[in-house]
Amino acid sequence: MVNASTNSTAEASRSRRTASEVITEALREAILRGILKGGQRLGQEELAAQFGVSRLPIREALRQLEVEGFVLSYPHRGVVVSTLTPEEVQEISEIRLALETLALRLTIPHLSEDVLQQADAILSKIDQETDLLGWSELNWQFHKTLYTPANRPRLLTLLKNLYATANRYPLTSYKAQSQQEHRKILEACRHRETETALKILEQHIEATAKMPVAYLKRENSEDASQEIGN
Question: Which of 23, 57, 124, 182 has the maximum number of C-beta atoms within 10 A of its C-beta?
Answer without folding.
Answer: 23
